[in-house]
# Entry
Amino acid sequence: MDVFEAVQERRSIRVYQDTPVPREKLEKILEAARLAPSARNIEPWHFIAVTDNEKRKILSKGRFAKFLAEAPVVIVACGDKEASPDWYAIDVALAVENMVLTATSEGLSTCCVGSFEEKEVKETVKVPDNFEVLLLLAVGYAGEKLDLSSKLLHLMRSRKTLSEVASEETFGQHLVPQKVTEP
Ligand SMILES: Cc1cc2nc3c(=O)[nH]c(=O)nc-3n(C[C@H](O)[C@H](O)[C@H](O)COP(=O)(O)O)c2cc1C
# Structure
C-alpha cells in the first residue's frame, strides 16, 4: 500500500477485535512517530503504548472515548511544552499522523481521541509536568469497518470538496481540480 492509498483507506474506527497488536507492528508504528519532522529537530514528544486493561478503562472515561476500553492498544501522545513551547503541538500532531498511516498500511485501524481529562490521564500513565497530553490514539484490528457512530459522523459531516479547501496563489482563488478525486 503506498502512502496515498493509506490516506484514502484510513477511517476512524471505534469498534475493535480482541486480537492483540503484534509487537513488531506496534514498534513499527512508534518508529514512524520517532521519524516525524519537528521544528528545529527538537523531537519534543513521548508516546506511551498502553495495553493494560485497567489503565485503558481509565483512559476511556471521556464522553466520546468509550471504545478505548476495547481497543487493544491506546497510544498516549505527549508534547514537551518546555522543550519547544511554540511547536510541540504541531510536532506531536505530525508524529501521530505518521503512526495513523503506518498502522493503516499494516492492516490496522486507528482513531484519534481528544475526549479525555488530562489530569487523570497524566496520573494514570505517570506523565511528567513539563509534558502535555495532546491526543490518545486507539490502535487495533477493526471489528466492523464502519460502526454506527462512524456512519453517523460520516453522514452528518461529509468531506468538503478539494476546491472548498484549496486555493491557488491567493486565499479564496479556489482550485479547480483537473482530476476528480473521491470524497
Ligand atoms: C484532534 C482529533 C480529536 C478527535 N477526537 C475524537 C474523540 O474524542 N472521539 C471520537 O470518537 N473521535 C474523535 N476524533 C475522530 C474524528 O471524529 C474523525 O476523524 C472525523 O469524524 C472524520 O472521520 P474519519 O477520521 O473517519 O475520516 C478526533 C479526531 C481528531 C483529529
User: Anything to note?
Assistant: Residues 3-145 form a domain with the NADH Oxidase fold (CATH 3.40.109.10). The beta strands are 45-50, 73-80, 109-113, 131-140. The chain is about 35% helix and 15% strand.
